[in-house]
Design brief:
The protein is an alpha/beta fold and 364 residues long. It has 2 domains: 2-129 and 333-344, ATPase, nucleotide binding domain (Nucleotidyltransferase, domain 5); 155-329, 2-Layer Sandwich (Nucleotidyltransferase, domain 5), CATH 3.30.420.40. The chain has helices spanning 33-36, 46-60, 89-97, 109-120, 137-140, 155-168, 220-228, 233-241, 246-250, 255-263, 267-290, 308-318, 332-344; strands at 2-8, 12-19, 22-30, 69-72, 84-86, 123-127, 177-183, 187-193, 196-200, 297-302, 324-328. The strands form 2 sheets. Strands 3-2-1-4-6-5 form a 6-stranded mixed sheet, with helices on both faces. Strands 9-8-7-10-11 form a 5-stranded mixed sheet, with helices on both faces. The longest helix has 24 residues, at 267-290.
Length: 364
């Protein structure tokens, strides 16, 4: 089973070709800000991104004619259950249009997958998109009538990390309970119960720990005071996703620089780093409570997990809950390919995207 995975990012496009579980080809092409500035809308980037992929394949002599499945990083879709979805016209419409209100290059993934699938005679899929929403009922509630919680998480990497760790326990993901974290430019902390991600923080909505470019949870009254002090809504919204966290506190989102400055005695950098780690541990404890204390493992993924002191800090604070296991980096490309293989082999049935959010409020 040969699978081609496509992952459009903010400043890059990643592709990888898998033959079974083996990655036989992987490449990342970087896009300069000047290149991307030529496009006023996300949709206008499609020919540019597609050509970049075609150029890579031509340069490396990679033939896709025998590829059975093409998987694009999902984005822009309305809340749905986790799983593998065959790319339909509705998925294309919603992803390019950003039906969920989020504009990110990942929204281009389904269209790119469909284009290359049609050109090579394969099937097109998306796997566990960022809008995967499997919250339990209690997790949806807020204290404001008619206002409910939704989640945007690194669902693809979170679920793949959990699936892989369950395999090391010689168990199925559906038989395990985990607290799974993605700790990188954004930070997702999630509770997985018997194969469903029943709670987690909304990294788009400003929940959870601060991150290199995200403010994390801030008391509502403080946000209101910030607005009344003359800061605009657009500026405040950017703090949630792009200019908060380390960027706001220290002036850089480069975690390596933050750690280096902290080691050299920079009090501000150390305070910011320690606060982020503290908040990660605090959220892990919250997710453990969601699982009733029945936690088969605390799993750490994402780029910042390469820092051993972060892992040790989590072990020191949270190791009493369950064993802490580090999976530095990410499994996004592998996760996309694995999802397609499960469908191709008949181990999993593909789901159909309805365009109807999985939750639209309680009926009573």
């Amino acid at each position: 089973m040969r699978v081609f995975a496509i992952n459009p990012g903010s400043t890059s496009t990643k592709v990888a070709l898998f033959d079974g579980e083996k990655c036989v080809f992987s490449k990342t092409v970087r896009h300069s800000s000047e290149e991307l500035a030529r496009f006023s809308t996300l949709a206008e980037q499609l020919p540019f991104r597609a050509q970049a992929i075609s150029d890579i394949l031509a340069e490396e002599g990679v033939d896709l004619s025998d590829v059975e499945a093409f998987v694009g990083r999902g984005g822009g879709l309305l809340p749905m259950e986790g799983g593998v979805y065959e790319v339909t016209d509705l998925i294309l419409e919603h992803s390019i249009g950003g039906a969920n209100g989020v504009t990110h290059p990942a929204n281009l993934g389904p269209t790119l997958a469909r284009r290359f699938a049609e050109a090579n005679g394969g099937r097109a899929f998306v796997v566990n998109p960022p809008d995967t929403d499997e919250l339990c009922g209690a997790a949806r509630m807020t204290g404001i009538h008619g206002v409910y919680r939704h989640v945007h998480l690194h669902a693809l990497n979170l679920k793949e990390t959990a699936i892989r760790h369950a395999a090391t326990l010689v168990r199925a993901y559906e038989d395990c309970d985990f607290v799974v974290c993605h700790i990188g430019g954004g930070i997702s902390i999630s509770a997985h119960q018997h194969g469903r991600m029943i709670d987690g923080n909304d990294i788009v909505g400003g929940e959870g720990p601060m991150a290199p470019t995200r403010a994390g949870a801030v008391p509502v009254v403080e946000v209101l005071d910030y607005l009344e002090a003359g800061h605009g809504v657009a500026e405040t919204r950017r703090l949630c996703m792009k200019t908060g966290g380390f960027e706001s506190l220290v002036g850089t989102s480069d975690a390596i620089q933050i750690i280096k400055r902290a080691d050299e005695g920079d009090v501000v950098a150390k305070r910011a780093w320690d606060a982020m780690v503290y908040q990660v541990c605090k959220e892990i404890g919250a997710m453990a409570a969601v699982l009733g204390g029945h936690v088969d493992g605390i799993l750490l993924g994402g780029g910042l997990v390469y820092e051993p002191r972060l892992v040790e800090s989590v072990r020191r604070r949270c190791g009493w809950i369950a064993p802490v296991t580090a999976y530095p980096g990410e499994f996004e490309m592998e996760a996309m390919a694995a999802g397609a293989r499960r469908v191709l082999s008949g181990a999993e049935e593909p789901k159909t995207y309805t365009g109807v959010p999985v939750f639209a409020g309680f009926s009573d």
